[in-house]
Each structure stands twice: as C-alpha cells, then as structure tokens.
Design brief:
alpha/beta; single chain; 35% helix
C-alpha cells in the first residue's frame, strides 16, 4: 500500500495596490506553477486590509506571550502563514525598495514566534518583483531583494527563487514570455522537494 502525499499549502501575499498589477501577474504565474504541481494556493491581497505598523511594544517577545498586541487583520493572517508550507511574496518597487504594504507585513511577522516555535524553519519562499526602470539596480529592486534575503535567511526560512522584471503599466510584464515561464517554473520548484 502506498502512502498518499499531502498537498503542499502555499500562501501568496500581494503587496501592490493594483490587484492586476505586474507583481500580481508574476505571483499568479508562480501560483499556477505550484497548483500544477499539486499544491493548494490561497492569495491574500494586503492592500486595503487593516494592518498597522509594528509599534515595538515587544509584547509578542515576552514569556508566555499570547501573540501580537495589535488587534487588526494580521491576526487572521498569522495562522495561514504558520499552516503554509510555502509563501509567495509579490511587490512592486516603490521608492527604491518594496511597497509599504509589503514592508508592514514583513515587520509584523516579528510576532510569529509567539504563535509557534521556529515558525520560519522549513518555510519555502518565492519572491516576485516588478519595477518601472530598465535596470534592477537603478530601480531599487536589488535593495528589496537583499532585504528579503537578509530577513528570511536570518529567520531560518529558505528562499527558493526570485523572479523580477521591468514593467511600468499594469499588464506590461506579460509581454516578457521568458520571465512568465521562469515564474511558473519557480512555482513548481517551490512545492517540490
């Protein structure tokens, strides 16, 4: 008798104010790749959610903490992050780094250890970025990519891959067929051991 493999869970976090923007399109390609490899995928659109910035109260870091002291929409997101095997984080470049929505989300992940021991350990992460300039260095995309690498490396998660490309108007990224294929392949890689 063969044991049936449990489907991997993927949470996609969209950090753009545009639901059909270029970073969202890249994230969708990653999602499609993950789905085609048997994963279940849930997408969370961060813009418009009530997610306050971290207030540095350290309530989440105290012994016997009950979690983050801020009662907002992150309280519903924390359990999804913990249950997921993999995360896809998608953001456009705004002012030489990730969007404010994405950064606030990342800052609030500081509280995750209050909800589970070693919450980042074993997490597999894919990053999707879009930028309006022609170059990932001049645009600031590299700044954001480095932030992801430093933060999640420190926390013990593993970045499986990053896809990023130049596109200004919503939907422009779709014309980059090579990048679209890379994003879909990243989705498969994200959920395959």
């Amino acid at each position: 008798m063969t044991e049936k493999k449990k489907a991997k869970k993927v949470v996609v976090l969209l950090g753009s104010p545009r639901k059909k923007g270029n970073s969202a399109i890249l994230a969708k390609q990653i999602s499609d790749g993950a789905s085609s490899a048997g994963a279940s995928v849930e997408t969370i659109f961060l813009h418009g959610r009530e997610i306050a910035p971290c207030k540095s109260c350290y309530a989440c870091q105290k012994p016997n903490s009950k979690g983050c002291s801020i009662d907002d929409d992150m309280q519903a997101i924390y359990p999804k992050l913990l249950k997921a095997d993999a995360w896809v984080i998608a953001s456009p470049v705004y002012w030489f780094t990730m969007s404010a929505q994405t950064k606030i989300f990342m800052d609030r992940c500081f509280a995750l250890p209050a909800y589970a021991q070693d919450p980042f350990s074993g997490k597999r992460i894919a990053i999707a970025m879009s930028y309006g300039a022609n170059d990932p260095f001049d645009s600031g995309c590299v700044n954001a990519l480095r932030t992801y690498q430093d933060a999640y490396g420190y926390a013990g998660a593993k970045i499986i891959g990053m896809v990023y490309g130049s596109a200004l108007d919503a939907g422009d990224i779709e014309s980059n067929e090579t990048l679209m294929k890379e994003a879909q392949e990243l989705g498969k890689k994200l959920v395959c051991d």
